[in-house]
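Hypothesis: this fold can be encoded by more than one sequence.
Test: take the structure tokens below, design a sequence, compare later.
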């Protein structure tokens, strides 16, 4: 690992720790629901778990997870 990469890794870790501290202080909770399980279950019930449709659906989910347009924030009040 070069000197520049080592510096970056240390800096990245300190930023992640600071973010975690801020989120914990704000009592921030994050729940992520992945659609893979429900998709697999639904297509299995339809008998399509080993089909082209299943592969296309997984590809669409994977592409969708790469963009932020699927995200939504739900405010939870204590």
């Amino acid at each position: 690992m070069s000197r520049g990469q080592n510096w970056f890794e240390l800096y990245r870790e300190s930023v992640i720790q600071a973010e975690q501290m801020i989120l914990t202080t704000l009592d921030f909770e994050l729940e992520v629901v992945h659609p893979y399980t429900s998709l697999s279950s639904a297509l299995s019930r339809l008998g399509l778990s080993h089909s082209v449709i299943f592969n296309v659906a997984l590809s669409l989910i994977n592409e969708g997870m790469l963009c932020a347009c699927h995200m939504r924030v739900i405010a939870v009040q204590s």
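The first helix runs from residue 3 to 25. The helical segments are 3-25, 36-45, 52-66.
Hypothesis status: open.
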